Every structure is written in structure tokens, then in C-alpha cells.
Amino acid sequence: MTAADHPPPLADDADPPSTLADTLQDHALEPVPAAERKSVMQLVIVQIGWNISVSSFLVGGVVGGGTTFSEGLLAILLGNVLLVAVAYLIGMVGFRTGLTSYLASRAVFGTRGSIIVTMLLGVVAMGFIGVLADTWGTAVNKLIPAVPGWAFVLAFALAITSTAIFGFKGLQRYSAIAVPIEIAIALLALVAIARTEDGFAGVVAVVPAAGIGFGAAVGAVMSTWITGAALVSDVTRYARSGRHVLLGVIAGFVVGAGTFELIATLSAMSVGNSNFVVVMQSLGLLAPAVVMLVLALWNTADNNLYSASLAFTSASDLLGFRVPKWVWTIVAIVIAVLVALSGAAAQFGVFLGVVGVVAPPFAGVLIAHFWLVARGVSGARLLSEAPTVRWEALLCWLVASLLAWSTGFLLTDAIEGLVAGAVLYGIVGSLLRSRQTEATSVSSA
């Protein structure tokens, strides 16, 4: 990547006018032009929304139930700082090329080879939406048994489609409403903890009955969001500068994910329970907890729907037929609803396991290609010179995924896959590129 990939600087003024068709298509098949890059505030608000999810509460419960206060705080800080580093490397690819994760993957895996990766990630994202919708429908049906669970699933599907179908603009408008509410509820939880009998002093003094260890706590933080970091260029392709990318990912992973993980950790330590809703109910905040859960589920699901629609739009284009992104958004949500109605919530752990194995190696290979193997080559040139299939990239991705699944040399499968993908492809790709350069020099001599 070179300076030629950088879009010209723009003032932080209003967005340029665009048609509804442009908004719905969301530059799914071409670079985001400089005139349509977003202000740093818009990027930050979307990135925070991208990173506030139900996963933060789950991680907080795990960390809060298995570490001391100082261990938990350091684990959350270190885990998210490492995620910022990964997200920045991936995010800069999106900024410099203006491409989605899936278009950028064409330069890495080849025009046909990227179809495999793109479809797999898209299907996993779509399945994840179905699992979330099923979880939501089942939970609310228990509170309001007079209304069938499928009705709540359909309502949830319509809600997330109403934002994801408009791409970045839809995410930005939803986040502008949801993020302030979520932050207010988080602050309310802190006040409630401070007003408990022991207050924060009691939290600091907590000693877990069964500690999970500092390494496991860091691993829990990282594995939860490593996939989000792998696909962050879907957001950062709208950035106006590298500084905005850095501010965005810091806001997302430290202010967004990190803050809510910390509050969930403090809540779990204060009440002695890792279930977020139970914890909030114990603090007298059941209604705010329900609001937070709805908003966080919406965050998580519409981000996945956005990603799935971009993936299928790219794949269908490579297969020779152009289907608009908004059509794929609807197709993806219909299939996700069918997955939900099939009772997929029972397979939640399986989905998380698959995501944690296949997505991080994709990020590792992508980082190695743009920052090491093809460093100094413009994104446009990389796309124009992309082979039909880059077998070494696919092989490294496959081997890294198998290593992550079958070994335990680092904290979690997700981290193992990321590192393995980056190292394997960094070595193999660099060696092959060096040989190609030598062969070209000899033939031109």
C-alpha cells in the first residue's frame, strides 16, 4: 500500500448528496470515493456501536467471576489494546483501498479463490443472526407467553433489516440513537454499584472462588472480538485519514467493548453472579437491563447482517451475476429467520466455535499480504493483478484454521488462528514473491 491509496483530505462538513440507490448499494462492489468519506464523529459513533454487543456482557461475566479486580481490569485493558492493534492493521487496508473486507480478499485469495472465503464468512454471519434471533424470541416469549416466539423473531428481523439495508448510513443513524442510551445505562449501573452496601471497595476486595487465570481472561476478551477486528475494514473504508481509523478502533474496542466489559465485570463482582440480567435486576435496574439487551442484540445482529450482505454481493458478482446489496440483505435475513425458527439457539456454542476458527486466520493472511508480502503496491494494482486463485493464500488460511482448531499453543483458538495465518502466509507469500521478482528480473535482462 502506498500514499497513492490515500484519499484526498476533506473538511468535516455534511455528507455529499446521494440517491437512495447509492445508499442501498453502499459501494459494495467498488472503492468508497473520497467525496463520500465520513467525518471522524460519524466513524467513531459507528465503531462504538459495532463493538457494543451481548458478547461484552458475557465476557464481563466470565472475567468478573474468575479474577480479582486488578487482574480483570488489566486483562480487559490488555486484551482490547491488542485488538486495537489488529483492527488498526486491518482498518488501514480498508481506508487506503476503500474496499470492503471481501473485495480486499480478492487481491489476496484471487478472483475465484476469494469466493470460498467470502461465502464461508457470509454464511457464518447469517447463521449467527439466526441464533441471536432465536435466542431473543425464546427469551421474550418466556416473559410474554401469550405471544408466540416466532412473532418476536419476525419483529427482530424487521428491526435489524431496517438499519442494515442502508449500509453504513443505516448503522450510523442507529448508533447515533442507541450508543448514548447504552452509555447512560452503563453509567447508571456504575452509580448503582457505588450505592450498594460495600460499594466499589467491596468489588476491589473480591477474591474469586475459582480463578480462571490472567491468561484465560485476556484470551476471553480477545477471542470474543477478534472476528470483529478481522472485518473492521467494512467500516473504516469510509475513513478520511489514518488518524481517523486509529481514533475509530480505539473508540470501538476501548470505549465500546472495553468499557462495557469492565462494567459487566464490576457488576458480576458486586452481585456475585455472571448473568447480566440477573445482576442488573439485583441492582434494581431490570428495565434498563432489558433496554440494554435489546439495543445490544440489535447492534450485534445488524452488523452481522451488513457483513453477510456485503459478502454475498461480492460473491455473486464474481460468479457473473450482479444482485443489488439490498436484495442480498433481504435474502440473508429470510434465511436467518428460517435458521432461527429451526431452533438454532442450541447450537450457539458451535457457531461461536466455527467463527473463532475460520475468521481470525483470514485476518492474519490479509494483514500479511497487505503489510508484508505486497507492501508498497497500491490497492488498485493488487486488484488488477489478482490471479484467478492464489493457492498459497488459501492453503495458509486452511492450515492456520486447522492449527487453531487442533492445537493449544496460545491463549485461544482465535488468537492462534490469527498468528498462524499471518506467520505462515508471511513466510510462504514472501518467498514466492521473491522468486517471482527474481524470475522477472532474469527474463527482462
Q: SSE layout and pairings?
A:
Layout: H1 20-25, H2 40-51, H3 54-66, H4 69-97, H5 101-109, H6 113-143, H7 149-164, H8 167-194, H9 199-204, H10 214-230, H11 233-236, H12 242-271, H13 276-282, H14 286-318, H15 325-341, H16 348-373, H17 379-384, H18 391-406, H19 413-444
Helix pairs in contact: 2-8, 2-12, 3-10, 3-12, 4-10, 4-12, 4-16, 5-6, 6-7, 6-14, 6-15, 6-16, 7-14, 7-15, 8-12, 8-14, 10-16, 10-19, 12-13, 13-14, 14-15, 16-18, 16-19, 18-19
Family: Belongs to the purine-cytosine permease (2.A.39) family.
Protein name: Cytosine permease
Transmembrane segments: 43-66, 72-95, 107-129, 149-168, 175-194, 200-233, 245-264, 276-298, 326-345, 351-373, 394-411
Provide the CATH architecture: Orthogonal Bundle
The assigned structural class equals: mainly alpha
How many β-strand runs?
0
Classify the fold: give the CATH topology: Hydantoin permease
| Model regions low in confidence, pLDDT < 50 over at least 5 residues | 8-14
What is the terminal separation in angstroms? 27 Å
Name of the CATH class = Mainly Alpha
Judging from the principal axes of the Cα atoms, what is the shape? globular
Q: How many discrete structural domains?
A: 1
- The amount of beta strand, in percent, is under 5%
The helix-strand sequence is HHHHHHHHHHHHHHHHHHH
Total helix count? 19
CATH superfamily: Hydantoin permease
> Any idea what the radius of gyration is?
22 Å
The helicity comes to over 70%
Main beta-sheet strand count, sense and barrel state:
none
Integer average pLDDT: 85
